[in-house]
C-alpha cells in the first residue's frame, strides 16, 4: 500500500453493495486491527460471504466480526428472555 496506494474503501463498498448491503464507514485504525468497517447487511449469510470473499484474496491476516443490535432488537430479546427465565437450571443446582 505504501509503494502503490489504492482506495480500499471503494473496493470494500463495491463488494458490500454487490452482496446487497451498505458500507456506512471504513476507518483505518491503530490497534489489533488495521481497518474497522461499519457494514449493514440483510443477514449472517451476507456477512459470511463478504468475509470469505475478502479472505480468499489472501491479504487479511486476522479479522473479527461484531454483530450489533439496535436498542429495539435488544429490548425484544430481553422480553423473550423474561418469558423463559426459569426454563434453564444450572447443573450445579
Could you explain how this protein is built, in words?
The protein is an alpha+beta fold. It has one domain (8-84). The chain has three helices and two strands. It has helices at 8-18, 44-56, 71-84; strands spanning 22-28, 35-40. The protein has a two-stranded antiparallel ribbon with strand order 1-2. Strand 1 and strand 2 form a beta hairpin. The longest helix has 14 residues, at 71-84. The chain is elongated, with a radius of gyration of 18 Å. The mean pLDDT is 93.
Task: Give a topology summary.
Layout: H1 8-18, E1 22-28, E2 35-40, H2 44-56, H3 71-84
Antiparallel strand pairs: 1-2
Please tell me the overall pLDDT: 93
Query: Which class do the helix and strand fractions yield?
Result: alpha+beta
Strand segment tally: 2
Span of the ends, CA to CA: 57 Å
Strand content: 5-15%
Proportion of helical residues:
40-55%
Query: In DSSP terms, counting alpha (H) and pi (I) runs of 4 or more, how many helices?
Result: 3
* Widest sheet: strand ordering: 1-2
What radius of gyration results from the CA coordinates? 18 Å
Largest sheet descriptor:
2 strands, antiparallel
As residue ranges, the low-confidence spans are none
Approximate shape: elongated
Instruction: Encode the helix/strand succession as letters.
Output: HEEHH
Overall structural domain count: 1
Key words describing this protein structure:
41% helix; 93 residues; alpha+beta
